[in-house]
Design brief:
This protein is α/β, with parallel strands linked by helices. 30% of the residues lie in helices and 24% in strands. The protein is built from 15 helices and 26 strands. It has a nine-stranded mixed β-sheet with strand order 2-1-11-10-12-13-14-15-16. Strand 13, helix 11 and strand 14 form a beta-alpha-beta unit. Residues 1-13 have low confidence and may be disordered.
């Protein structure tokens, strides 16, 4: 058995313990509680210009749970959700969970083969799909022996049950299943940034811990907030931001089903006046490219996750709009964030400090604690972490080390307790015997005004030695030529050690990414 070493860091902040009863159903807690305590008339969602109340979501979630029961779905059976960000997602998510079934959110933009994979991997009995996903799923239905029904939201489709018709024939009363706090509540598939996705299992109590420690403890989400998470609900980050963080306190979420192009995002912010914005660094960068004046004065909080936030992007956003960009770090396995910058305390280039309620360690390749200031593998411990992956025994043993989660991320910690992301363990480069952080080189490249995005990988030179290679997406109007390559190398050498400068620089139209915005560096290596 691997030695775990001693504790690297214990949070110094005082945190009230999160208490969850032994018999507990998360859907009843996050949804029915508001109805029972007279808050059913509060707005749960703003969608397509209208308000959707907690009472409406609660009644329709009950109808959906009863509709599942009528189709033979029972406790612990999986229900795949391939839906855009709209109220039906919440109805299906809470309705399945209240029944004791296990909702499994996935992107609505997967290909047919990807849907076949997750349907067979999860053995889902039912899938609820939006218009785009329904067609792809129906095309592979014959390859999915466990799938008993496809339920289509929106336009009716041959071979699929109609969502609204099913709800119309179901009762609006549903008692929550007698689940425990340690029963399986939902699965979250990893984004596939390092390979094939895996399903991280999460328990009913996990959602409460994340909502209290992160939603309230870090972001201060309160009942008067209107949260706008451009990061989608099927993504662990978006699921917390737009669903159970607001539901924990009776707040509201602004949902956008369409593709989040910058003009649409700005228009929605100006029209709906949200108080908190959550998205990935790529979208913040693209928002900054849009010329014109925009009123973002309603926002009190701007949060970035999914990839490391370059310091240049932090400064550009604050200079133009007056808001800090709070970089945070989490994972599907941890359910949400475990390291975060706090409002008013953000440090450009840093991922922030440990979320109170979590513990962390930095270790070397032999699991020995690293000295302060040195790069190490990050391990975290907290009550929202997954107990394991579905049907991935070896990966579970390698990742879930007892109470500790091996995140796969490399960090160093400064003397003030701020953590700095260096890259995924699989992405780190050894150049001339020295570690090189792709994130550090990417951040330096993005300081050049011509560069919108950058990704760095290792590539063998003519002698078989590893050297950095950069792929850069340029801003509109920039000319990708040898002069720019030379300028970028020179700039990196001015800011970093010379061996970290890219030997090769390619200009590309875009970078391969997951549906959640994470760069798939393994595809660049291929």
């Amino acid at each position: 058995m691997r030695a775990l070493g001693y504790l690297r860091k214990v949070p110094s902040d005082r945190v009230t313990p999160v208490v969850v009863p032994e018999r507990f159903n998360a859907a009843a807690f996050f949804l029915d509680r508001h109805l029972a305590e007279g808050r059913g008339g509060r707005t749960a969602f703003r969608f397509a210009g209208r308000a959707v109340t907690y009472d409406e979501v609660g009644r329709r979630a009950n109808r959906f749970g009863n509709a599942l029961r009528s189709r033979g779905v029972h406790i612990e059976q999986r229900v795949l959700l391939a839906l855009p960000d709209r109220p039906e997602f919440a109805e299906a998510f809470w309705g399945a969970m209240k029944l004791g079934a296990v909702p499994v959110p996935v992107s609505e933009a997967l290909g047919a083969d990807e849907y076949a994979f997750v349907l067979n991997d999860s053995r889902a009995r039912v899938v609820v799909a939006g218009e785009g996903a329904a067609e792809a799923i129906l095309s592979v239905r014959a390859r999915c022996p466990w799938l008993a029904a496809v339920i289509a939201v929106g336009r009716p489709r041959r071979g699929a049950l109609d969502y609204e018709r099913l709800l119309g024939h179901a009762s609006a009363e549903l008692a929550p299943a007698d689940t425990s706090r340690d029963d399986v509540a939902h699965w979250g598939y990893t984004s596939g940034s390092t390979g094939a996705p895996k399903a991280a299992v999460h328990l009913h109590h996990d959602l409460v811990h994340a909502a209290e420690l992160v939603g309230q403890g870090i972001f201060g989400i309160g009942p008067d907030d209107l949260v706008f998470s451009v990061s989608k609900l099927h993504f662990a980050f978006g699921l917390g931001n737009a669903l159970y963080f607001p539901a924990h306190v009776g707040a509201a979420s602004l949902l956008m089903a369409e593709h989040p192009d910058p003009a649409r995002v700005f228009a929605l912010i100006e029209r709906e006046r949200p108080t908190a914005l959550f998205t990935v660094p790529t979208l913040y960068a693209r928002l900054l490219q849009v010329e014109g004046g925009f009123d973002l004065s309603s926002l009190r909080l701007c949060v970035s996750s999914g990839e490391a936030l370059p310091a240049a992007l932090f400064h550009a956003w604050k200079s133009r709009f007056g808001h800090e960009l709070l970089d945070v770090v989490g994972s599907t396995e941890a359910l949400h964030d475990f390291i975060a910058n706090r409002p008013g305390e953000a440090r450009p280039g840093s991922s922030g400090r440990l979320v109170p309620g979590f513990e962390a360690r930095l270790v070397d390749d032999a699991d020995r604690p690293v000295a302060p200031g040195l790069v190490g593998h990050l391990l975290v411990k907290g009550d929202s972490t997954s107990p394991g992956y579905w049907n991935r025994h070896e990966r579970t043993k390698a990742t879930m080390l007892g109470a500790w989660l091996r995140t796969g991320d490399m960090f160093y910690e400064d003397s003030d307790g701020y953590f700095y992301f260096c890259g995924r363990a699989d992405d780190m480069l050894k150049v001339g015997g020295m570690w090189v952080s792709p994130a550090e080189v990417e951040a330096a490249l993005m300081e050049h005004p011509a560069v919108l995005e950058a990704a760095v990988i290792g590539r063998a030179d003519g002698d078989g030695l590893t050297r950095p290679q950069a792929f850069c997406v340029l801003n509109d109007g920039a000319d990708g030529n040898d002069a720019l390559r030379d300028a970028l190398r020179a700039m990196v050498k001015q800011r970093l050690a010379g061996y970290k400068a890219p030997r090769w620089i390619e200009f590309v139209a875009d970078l391969p990414k997951t549906s959640t915005g994470k760069i798939q560096r393994f595809r660049l290596r291929e």
